[in-house]
DNA sequence: CTCTAATTTGCAAGTCATGCTAACTAACAA
DNA sequence: TTGTTAGTTAGCATGACTTGCAAATTAGAG
């Protein structure tokens, strides 16, 4: 995602208003590698701007995604994650603490697929699962920080799948 | 997933009752490669057993998943998909018609990842996106059959992610 | 046939995200 | 500075998908 300043420029050019809500979000998202959910952003934003609406968070996030400024990542953990890192990369999800880390695609085996079985593959989504280095230590803090809400039953054991947005 | 007969055996051994609802589902799921949702199974099951509850579908499906008889696949399209094919394979999702096809992992480049960046990778989830051969034809039927319900906005462009169940 | 624990149902509840609209305001012009 | 207006925000309702719960059933054993 571009810097708040650049985004301001882009918005202006598109006749989009530079509201304080948007500017706040631009700042909160810039260089944010925490893969926040709309809810978590809402909480943080609320501190700096009490009264801001969750609806606005979703709205703005959706616009930024439309503009190709950020990715909407669904790890199947319940809520959508927003990732301002538009570079080609994948994600690693720690099954122990729930942490999500970016994985440089170059450090992982390159993935490619031509038209397998007659399918014209355009995008390949990948998610690595395992335990992060911290949780692998002897005295790891086995605490699933991101209190996973939605459905403890099926959710707990389901097999997630990936998807990369098409060029739409 | 094992055959209905074998499943019956398994259930008996586990002191689980062989209800007609379960038997019906065993049959509907056996060799089913349509990646049905709970809802779609419900519709089909309802024809053969009017009155069956959607709740029961979810319940049974969850149990089968727990028993390792089927995978719960989340393509991010809104509803969970149930896949009785427990063999190692990936999925291809057609962005045009919404069809989901199994992809033999061997026909796609093998994926592997040791501990990238300190992470102990246990599972890697992959989903291929593109257009199926049918939709690639000149006069393709550009109809998203599986009327995607849930959230047309964010859903339409979001980047899905994958996940493979841990050995739980 | 009886009994009991496992199941099924039906409905409420919960989570996540979007639709809708009245109230508000950034951006621009006079 | 003030007026105008199209773009935005805030709230609330609604929708989709699942699960929790408790009462009513029933499969399977004795």
From TrEMBL, chains A, B:
Phylogenetic classification of the source organism: unclassified sequences, metagenomes, ecological metagenomes
Similarity comment text for this entry: Belongs to the Fur family.
The protein's name in its UniProt record: Unannotated protein
GO biological process, any: negative regulation of DNA-templated transcription
Keyword presence, rRNA processing: no
GO molecular function, one term: transcription cis-regulatory region binding
Region feature (Disordered): 137-168
Gene3D superfamilies referenced in this protein's UniProt entry, alphabetically: 3.30.1490.190, Winged helix-like DNA-binding domain superfamily/Winged helix DNA-binding domain
Keywords: DNA-binding, Repressor, Transcription, Transcription regulation, Zinc
Coiled coil: none
InterPro entries reported in the protein's UniProt record: FUR (IPR002481), Fur_C (IPR043135), WH-like_DNA-bd_sf (IPR036388), WH_DNA-bd_sf (IPR036390)
Xref: CDD domains: Fur_like (cd07153)
């Amino acid at each position: 995602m571009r810097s708040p300043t650049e985004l301001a420029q882009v918005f202006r050019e598109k006749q989009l208003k530079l509201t304080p809500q948007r500017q706040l979000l631009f700042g909160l998202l810039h260089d944010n590698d925490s893969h926040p959910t709309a809810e978590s952003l809402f909480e943080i934003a609320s501190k700096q701007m009490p009264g801001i609406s969750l609806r606005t968070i979703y709205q703005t996030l959706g616009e930024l995604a439309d503009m190709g400024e950020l990715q909407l990542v669904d790890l199947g953990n319940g809520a959508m994650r927003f990732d301002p890192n538009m570079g080609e990369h994948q994600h690693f999800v720690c099954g122990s603490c729930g942490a999500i880390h970016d994985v440089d695609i170059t450090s992982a085996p390159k993935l490619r697929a031509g038209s397998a079985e007659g399918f014209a593959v355009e995008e390949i989504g990948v998610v690595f699962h395992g335990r992060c280095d911290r949780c692998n230590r002897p005295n790891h803090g086995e605490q699933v920080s991101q209190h996973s809400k939605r459905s403890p039953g099926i959710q707990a054991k389901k097999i997630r799948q990936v998807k990369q947005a098409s060029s739409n």
